[in-house]
């Protein structure tokens, strides 16, 4: 569905995408994970055939976006990061008007609009104004609109940003159903749980480069440990820091990470590690043993420093 080799995107002297290789297979859910400024959205705009490639090779649906842009855009769906719904139209008409842009006959586009409203659970809001919808409803309507042309490939840029947990799970359910129907999904996200829930395979991008690739489980197995023990110690004085305790526990774990308020011990058996910490006379005021997650991988690969 997508083949990119040495793909680059530059804006003047700034290179947003610095030579990446990507292959997306039909029917899979593929993710671009990375901090702000990693190059995810620039990559998605090239894949959507709305931003020209600066260098490298890119094929979408076995077509060249430089020469076959209209044909590609007719066969894909795009759910942008920001909702761009027409507030002058009601919910159903947002779908009908958008469908007419693809040249769909009036009768077909009306039938398709009703199908999609049912699919995203907005049938009862068909005549409502867009401004009266909740954030989650607007997001579902945007996804429905991106499906009006029955796309083979659906691009989703940060599909659940700003939504509450309940709304996010409704969107996840709709996207999972699309995948079951054979639609190929490509999404960008900075939510680790979203990437774990939705993607079969993903790449982690940082500073315009791909720094890791694989399934969520493969990435965790490669770049982290099975479990993490989080230890929080009481800090009696300014000089008594968690960093000062690293030397007393670092041999108990594969890796120790120091945070201002706790130590993270990456280990195969968290409970056993905590028991050994106690055997050494160390008494944390709070402990938590958990499975490693994609977030542990993400932070190890891209760092904890805030990117503006």
TrEMBL record:
Topology in the lipid bilayer: Peripheral membrane protein
Record field: transmembrane: none
PROSITE patterns on file: ABC_TRANSPORTER_1 (PS00211), ABC_TRANSPORTER_2 (PS50893)
Keywords: Antibiotic resistance, ATP-binding, Nucleotide-binding, Transport
GO MF term (any one): ATP binding
Ranges where the ABC transporter domain occurs: 2-232
InterPro entries noted in UniProt: AAA+_ATPase, ABC_transporter-like_ATP-bd, ABC_transporter-like_CS, ABC_transporter_ATP-binding, P-loop_NTPase
Keyword Nucleotide-binding: yes
Location(s) in or outside the cell: Cell membrane
Primary localisation category: membrane
One Pfam family here: ABC_tran
Protein family: Belongs to the ABC transporter superfamily.
Protein name (database record): ABC transporter ATP-binding protein
Organism the protein comes from: Nocardioides mangrovi
């Amino acid at each position: 569905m997508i083949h990119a080799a040495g793909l680059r995107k530059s804006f003047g002297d700034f290179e947003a995408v610095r030579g990446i290789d990507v292959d997306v297979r039909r029917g899979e859910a593929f993710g671009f994970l990375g901090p702000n400024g990693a190059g995810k959205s620039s990559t998605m705009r090239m894949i959507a055939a709305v931003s020209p490639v600066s260098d490298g090779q890119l094929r979408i649906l076995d077509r060249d976006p430089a020469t076959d842009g209209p044909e590609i855009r007719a066969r894909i769906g795009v759910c942008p990061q920001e909702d761009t719904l027409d507030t002058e139209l009601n919910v159903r008409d947002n779908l009908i008007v958008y469908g007419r842009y693809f040249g769909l006959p009036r009768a077909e586009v009306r039938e398709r609009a009703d199908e999609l409203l049912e699919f995203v659970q907005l049938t009862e809001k068909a005549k409502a104004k867009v401004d009266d919808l909740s954030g989650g409803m607007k997001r579902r309507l945007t996804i429905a609109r991106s499906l009006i042309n029955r796309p083979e490939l659906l691009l989703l840029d940060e599909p659940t940003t700003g939504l509450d947990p309940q709304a996010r799970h409704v969107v996840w359910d709709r996207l999972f159903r699309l995948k079951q129907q054979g639609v190929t999904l490509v999404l960008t996200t900075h939510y680790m749980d979203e990437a774990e829930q939705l993607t079969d395979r993903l790449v982690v991008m940082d500073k315009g480069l791909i720094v890791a690739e694989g399934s969520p489980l493969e990435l965790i197995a490669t770049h982290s440990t099975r479990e993490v023990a989080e230890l929080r110690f009481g800090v009696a004085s300014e000089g008594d820091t968690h960093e000062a305790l690293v030397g007393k526990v670092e041999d108990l774990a594969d890796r120790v990470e120091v945070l201002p308020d706790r130590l993270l011990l990456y280990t195969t058996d968290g409970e056993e590690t905590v028991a050994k910490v106690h055997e050494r006379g160390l008494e944390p005021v709070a402990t938590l043993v958990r499975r490693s997650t994609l977030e542990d991988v993400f932070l190890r690969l891209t760092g904890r420093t805030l990117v503006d």
